[in-house]
Each structure stands twice: as C-alpha cells, then as structure tokens.
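Final report, closing paragraph on structural work. Over the funding period we assembled a curated collection of sequence-structure pairs, and we close with a single example.
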Amino acid sequence: MLWRFNAAACAMAAQQQRTDVIAHNVANVNTAGFRRGEVLFADLLYQSLEGRGRPVVPADISGQKPVTAGTGCRTAAIRTGFSGGALVQTDEMLHVAIVGDGFFRVRLPSGVEAYTRDGSFRRDSAGYLVTADGFRLALPPLPAPECEVAIAAGGEVAVTLPTGERQDLGRLELAAFANPGGLARHGDNLFVATENSGPPQRLLPGGQTCLQQGWLELANVDLATELTNLLRSLRAYQVSTRALQTLDEMAGIANQLQR
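Its predicted structure, as stored:
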C-alpha cells in the first residue's frame, strides 16, 4: 500500500516543479532575450504484482505478460526552448537583435566566456560595450562618449566621432552550438557551455543570421500557453491530491476491518 502513496506524492512533487518553472517563465516575460523552460517527465520503476513462489513463465510461451504496476513519475529534465522571440523596435543606438541562430559572446569577471540573446547593450565608464549587467563584449572601447555607433547587419561596428571622422572597431562575432539545448543557465540572462552543448563555434553574421540595430528580441514566452499549462498542472495536482486522500481512506477502512 505504501508504494501507492508514494506514486501520488511523486506526482504532486512533479507538478509542483512544473508550476515553479511556469512561474519563472511568466516572471521573465519582459526580459529581453529570455528563453523559456519546459519540464519533461519520466515514469519510475515498475513493480511486479506476481505472487511469491509462482513460477515466471516467459510471455512467448504462455502468451501472458507479467502483471506490473507503476510507482509514480519524476522530473526527468528542464529543457530550455530556443525558439526565437518577437522583435520590437526601440530606436536605441546600442540595442541589437539577432535574427536567426547564435548568441552574443560576453566575458565574465572570472574570465569565462558566457552567451546571451539579450542585445540591450550600453557603454560603461571605460567606453566598452557591455550588457545590462555590465559584462563586456569582445570589442575595443568607444573612442569618445559622444560618438555615434553604427552596427551593420553583418556585425561590422563603426563609430563616427564629433569631428566627423569614422573609425572601425571590428566585427561583432556570434557563437553557435551543435546542441544549444545542452547549454547551462548561469543567471543574469546568460548561458555557459557544457559537454552536452559542445564547444562554441564561431559564427559571423550574414545570410540567414544577421543583426538589427535599434531592435530588441523579447522573451519567447507566450502568456496564453503558459497560463494553459498552469491550469493543466493545477488540475493534475488536484487529481493527485484526491488520489492520495482516497488511498488514505482505503487504508483507514482496512485498519478498522483488522480490529
């Protein structure tokens, strides 16, 4: 009887985990470049209901398969969805959106390279282009605070000084991965490479992947989908709760019969 209680409890815990992920998605609906998470479930081990001492007859001889019952479910993984988000025009000079695949490459204070889809860049006190949290891009600093920055679709970055002189700062390179789903969330809207994602591959904008200056990519969170999933998760949680209550009532009846 106890494993039946465990099956209902596992279902409740799994739905709670799913609700937490949905809440996280909804909380970041206005986070530029955010990638939604999705919970994947897997069933647990199966328990044989065959009586002890009964010979096990192969199914190919008797035509009957052993009777088994599942013991619940678990959270198998939390998958990150990398579908593109909607683009919104901001007309900000240092806002850049990626059209297509790829990630912006930034350098963390520890020296580790991280990756993001958030293109809401700004200029720090040293003149470097940085993310909203201050992580620098791999570009030389801007020569003057008042200069105008032009970022081409192919990633070429040029500045125009107040004197009218034009200078090239280089090219904004992107990173691509053989398995983006293997990237690990780092926080601050950043990802880091893992063995599952593979090493970063150099990706130069152009063709199917290009940059758009003055635009931002929004989160790929659809509120209608998230609310629908939330209602489904709530209903599944209620059903599991009801099953647990029913099992408790059945156990109480059995205990009274023994008395």
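The chain has a mean pLDDT of 87. The chain has three helices and 20 strands. We thank the funder for supporting this effort.
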